[in-house]
Amino acid sequence: MSEQKRTTIHLDAAMHRALQHKALETSRSVSDLVNDAVRRTLAEDAEDLAAFEERVHEPLVTYESLLKELKENGRL
Predict the structure, then answer these.
(1) Residue span of the signal peptide, if any (predicted)?
(2) pTM of the full predicted structure?
(3) Which of 18, 48, 73, 76 has a 20 to 30 Å separation from 9 between CA atoms?
C-alpha cells in the first residue's frame, strides 16, 4: 500500500451526506471515494495537457477570425 497522508477538507453538508450514503451502499470508505474522484480529475488533467501538447503546432484561430469566417459563409 502506498504512503497515506491525513488532511482536512471542508465539504458542503449535503455533499458529505451523499458521500456517506454512497460509501455505505458500495461498502467503501469516504476516503476511497474521495481518492478515486481526485485520481480521475488528475487523470483528466493529464489527458488535457497531452492533447494541448499534440496540438501545439496547429495554427491559432482567433474568435474574431472565426466570426468573420462564419459571416462570410452566411452562417451568421
Answers:
(1) none
(2) 0.67
(3) 48
